[in-house]
Write a structure and sequence with these properties.
mainly beta; five-stranded mixed β-sheet; 1% helix
């Protein structure tokens, strides 16, 4: 393609072009309907069948041409069409692609219509229903007005600088009909031209000021102004601007006045953030111009970020935009696309480069914007927990910025954990987040994801590494957060019961932390048991718990699972090993717990009745423990029996039991099963062996019991009547025992009889009996009962 020289282009803009179209492009539906017409003058030209009515479904095209440098003027004698359905359209060129001068319908008086060049195209169409008389017009050619170089008021060749003022002809009086004024304004290469209008008032829809931006090898239309307007400044994209004002041959108005200049700064440029600003849209605080394109490239030192702070922002909503990119050009990520009138929160880049582009369209303008730049440190970094802090969101205690991404890696010495303690936390709820991971990166387990405004309990890692990521979106911001870091020892460990304690939850008596997992393994010497005694217990109910296992790990039997706020009875193992695990979730915390450990002897054992006692429940006269199982085997010499005498008995009724068997184990006959609080009568075995088992469940406990043991002779026996006695019930003159069975066989010499003489007799009526048989056994005749 051959480039057209600028001077030749200008001359082409200033002259009128003739467009010739072949006749076979004309459409005709009837004889005398349409055609190619030439001047100097012609007519009359009529609608089909004029002065009779035209027909339905007519389409008639006329192409009128006159000599070059002339214009065409149509004068109508009459005009009457079916209103709103049939039309005569008049175009300012060689076909329907040209500008439409008028579209006529109905019955009206039509003012003369003049082209701007030597070619005019007309198309008449009627629909399939009503018709009318139609129209008749004549056409003549008139001489085109050349572009004067110094003609006052109507056109000319102008330069800027120095600039000046331009008016419509005869301003401030009304301009004339049939005006055609052309202005060519030029400025030095690299400059642009700005038009500022003082007033604008022309006949709406008929008189027009067209403004062209002459750039490269083409002229683009910047604005087409008609009517009574307030006109925003109009700025060219190049150093050449062309204006054409045309008026028709009917109404006129006052016209217009504008000034032109090139003495203004071209918007955009390369900036350093440290320079600060202010930076503004063109002509700020006045309105920016139409068709603006301004670009800024802003840089700060490596390792810093850019912050834009806006004083004001007001552009045409949905049509004019300031786009902000997170990099060196429009291929970078878009941070924000701003339009309309709004308050703009500070905007921060993620690197040391930012690119801005402002564009306005060809219509409404507004005041624009003003912003300042600054460089800020990159948020996030590598920290040690011992450094303490504070660690804050960007700009704290001011609001953080939109589109933030801050990452912190916090480490502590091996064998330690990291604790975060928050002073404040306020971010946009559901949109901005501080995410905390229990490890070195985002692939680690999630500890917490924080958003909104909240009070945050301390957060503790399970190892010596923690990773945090803060992200904000592109809209609302808030004050952010401040937290401190510290090293804390790992909770849990290996203990001996003899060490005593106290053993506490983390941070006791302060609240423990979220997401805790603490494990203790407690041991005692062989042959001993472990007792836990709690001073206090308060954890989040149903969510945080202390589990206590009767062995070396979680596979052992569960003794207790504690949660909520409790008074905890002593807990005793059945062996010399106990395992505890405390876990807390990610929400509410509480004060926690404190307990002490001790060794206690194993309850139960092998006893002799002669040892006497006392024999007690564990911890007597204190309350026994939950989940107890104590077993005693008591023996007496052959030929003796065992008697248990109780001082006290109080256990949880129907849940804790002392079971007494009349033999060496639980397969022997059941003597008694004792529960509740009661007075217990002496219990006597029927042989020289007795077995006892005490069991308590996992809930309420009580004082327990104390008893003594003794040997007693077996009651009954083989007697001779001559021995005389006395023969007594067991323990006489004391009360006999429960569950007694005593048998005596008394003999006398052959030929004699036996007489029993009673000093006293008192047994429980109808329940306890002395039965006397008249013979050697119970098969003999019954004497007395």
């Amino acid at each position: 393609m051959v480039e057209v020289p600028r001077r030749r282009l200008i001359s082409n803009v200033l002259c009128f072009l003739v467009f010739l179209f072949p006749s076979d492009l004309l459409i005709s539906s009837a004889n005398g309907c349409g055609g190619n017409l030439t001047a100097p003058s012609g007519g009359p030209v009529t609608s089909p069948n004029y002065p009779g009515n035209y027909g339905n479904n007519e389409t008639c095209d006329w192409l009128i041409t006159v000599p070059t440098a002339s214009r065409i003027r149509l004068t109508f004698d009459s005009f009457n069409l079916q209103n709103g359905s049939d039309f005569l359209a008049v175009y300012d060129g060689g076909n329907v692609s040209a500008s439409q001068l008028q579209s006529l319908t109905g019955s009206q008086t039509v003012n003369p219509i003049t082209s701007t060049s030597n070619v005019m195209f007309l198309r008449f169409t009627s629909d399939g229903s009503g018709t009318a008389q139609g129209f008749q017009f004549s056409y003549t050619n008139t001489t085109a007005v050349p572009v004067p170089t110094t003609a006052p008021g109507c056109g000319g060749i102008l330069t800027a600088p120095p600039g000046g003022t331009v008016t419509s002809p005869n301003y401030p009086d009304v301009y004339n009909n049939g005006e055609n004024c052309n202005w060519l304004i030029t400025a030095p290469e690299g400059s642009r031209i700005r038009l500022t209008f003082d007033s604008f008032d022309v006949e709406y829809g008929y008189d027009v000021l067209n403004i062209y931006d002459v750039a490269n090898a083409a002229a683009s239309l910047l604005r087409s102004l008609t009517g009574s307007l307030s006109v925003s400044p109009i700025i060219s994209a190049s150093n050449v601007m062309f204006l054409r004002f045309t008026s028709d041959y009917s109404g006129t108005a006052q016209g217009f006045q504008f000034s032109f200049t090139t003495n203004f700064t071209i918007c955009g440029g390369n900036l350093m953030a440290a320079s600060g600003g202010p930076f503004t849209s063109p002509n700020y605080p006045g309105h920016y111009g139409n068709n603006e394109t301004c670009e800024w490239l802003i840089t700060v030192p490596t390792g810093s970020r850019l912050r834009l702070t806006f004083d004001s922002f007001d552009v045409q909503n949905g049509f004019d935009f300031l786009n902000i990119y997170d990099g060196a050009n429009v291929r970078a990520s878009l941070l924000r696309s701003l339009t309309g009138s709004r308050s703009v929160s500070p905007i921060v880049s993620t690197s040391n480069v930012m690119f801005l582009r402002f564009t306005s369209d060809g219509s409404v303008t507004a005041q624009g914007f003003q912003f300042f730049t600054s460089n800020i440190s990159l948020c996030g970094g590598n920290l040690t927990a011992a450094s303490g802090g504070p660690v804050t969101s960007p700009n704290y205690p001011g609001d953080y910025y939109n589109d933030e991404t801050c990452e912190w890696l916090i480490t502590a010495p091996e064998g330690s954990r990291i604790r975060l303690t928050f002073d404040s936390f306020e971010v946009q709820n559901h949109y901005d987040f501080l995410t905390i991971y229990d490890g070195a990166n985002v692939r680690a387990s999630l500890l917490r994801r924080l958003t909104g405004s909240q009070s945050i309990s301390p957060i503790v890692s399970t190892s010596n590494v923690m990773f945090l990521r803060f992200t904000s979106d592109g809209s609302v911001t808030a004050q952010g957060f401040q937290f401190f870091t510290s090293n804390i020892s790992l909770c849990g460990g290996n203990l001996t019961a003899a060490s005593g304690g106290p053993v506490t939850s983390p941070n006791y008596p302060g609240d423990y932390h979220n997401d805790e997992t603490c494990e203790w393994l407690i041991t005692a010497p062989e042959g001993s048991r472990i007792r836990l005694t709690f001073d206090s217990f308060e954890v989040e109910n149903h969510h945080d718990s202390l589990n206590i296992y009767d062995g070396a790990n979680v596979r052992a039997s569960l003794l207790r699972s504690l949660t909520g706020s409790l008074s905890v009875s002593p807990i005793v193992s059945t062996s010399n090993v106990m395992f505890l695990r405390f876990t807390s979730d990610g929400s509410v915390t509480a004060q926690g717990f404190q307990f002490f450990t001790s060794n206690i002897s194993l309850c139960g054992g092998n006893l002799t009745a002669a040892s006497g006692g006392p024999v007690t429940s564990p911890n007597y006269p204190g309350d026994y423990y939950n989940d107890e199982t104590c077993e005693w085997l008591i023996t007496a010499p052959e030929g003796s029996r065992i008697r248990l005498t109780f001082d006290s008995f109080e256990v949880q009724n129907r849940y804790d039991f002392l079971t007494i068997y009349d033999g060496a184990n639980v397969r022997a006959s059941l003597f008694r099963s004792l529960t509740g609080s009661r007075s217990v009568s002496p219990i006597v075995s029927t042989s020289n062996v007795m077995f006892l088992r005490f069991t308590s469940d996992g809930s309420v406990t009580a004082q327990g019991f104390q008893f003594f043991t003794s040997n007693i002779s077996l009651c009954g026996g083989n007697l001779t009547a001559a021995s005389g006695g006395p023969v007594t019930s067991p323990n006489y003159p004391g009360d006999y025992y429960n569950d007694e069975t005593c048998e005596w066989l008394i003999t006398a010499p052959e030929g004699s009889r036996i007489r029993l003489t009673f000093d006293s007799f008192e047994v429980q009526n109808r329940y306890d009996f002395l039965t006397i048989y008249d013979g050697a056994n119970v098969r003999a005749s019954l004497f007395r009962r």
